[in-house]
Amino acid sequence: MDRVKAVFGFLFLGTAVLMIRPLVSESLWIGLWGALLLIIAGCAWQQSRQPGHGALLSGCAGALLGLWGTLLVVGAAGGSTELWRPLHVYTGTTATNGNAAAHAPFVTVNDPAALQRELDAARAQGQWLLVDYYADWCVSCKIMEQQVFSRADVQAALRDVRLVRLDVTDDNAASRELLGRYQVPGPPTLLWIAPDGQERRASRITGEVDAKVFLQNWNSTRDAL
Predict the structure, then answer these.
(1) Are strands 162-167 and 129-134 parallel, antiparallel or unpaired?
(2) Which residues contact 97 (CB under 8 A, 6 or more apart)?
(3) What are 189-220's pLDDT values in tens digits?
(4) Could you give the CA distance from residue 119 to residue 204 in angstroms, rounded to a whole number?
(5) Contact indicator for 192, 218 with CB cutoff of 8 Å
(6) CA-to-CA distance for 12 and 224, rounded, in angstroms?
(7) Which of 77, 95, 171, 197 is the most exposed place for a label (fewest CB within 10 A)?
(8) Beta carbons of 76 and 31 less than 8 angstroms apart
(9) What whole-number distance in Å separates Cα of residue 75 and Cα of residue 146?
């Protein structure tokens, strides 16, 4: 019975870590998982010292969980934002993945007037415009920032596109007006505004997608013009 209570206790802790993800930085979130795994590893190691058939299994599980937990904590200490590659931050190759300056150059706006200026400028120059609805609490937005917009092939495909990020993090009148402009329920949502100033509604992307789907969507939208 004590073991069952312990399992449920760790499940509750894991659920809590999952729920607070939008409220903390990625590196802190990874560090919390590392700490939790280390605690579980310690308990498993204690169980391995008890007589019984499960001692060997508990010992192996404790060793594996302890190793992975240590890697997560070390990675988090270095600012890692990748749960499954916590030590990648120390390779010196994560600058293009985690640094917004290395990404496609989005212009971030948070008021309707600024959005209208970008729309007018794109239309005057005959440009496509990508509107990215974003919020700090949006987990999928951050995943796409790391796994889609940081990719060299995506940046190359968007080379001639004006990129505008609508920050609707705050629940205020400006955010509601930005969301209402194109009747968007919330982030992540991506809109393609053609050079004529009209949205290609059929190509709207709602929710998280990977780089392959994003590029397929853009290519078909551009070619249909």
Answers:
(1) parallel
(2) 81, 82, 146, 150
(3) 999 999 999 999 999 999 999 999 999 999 99
(4) 17
(5) yes
(6) 49
(7) 171
(8) yes
(9) 17
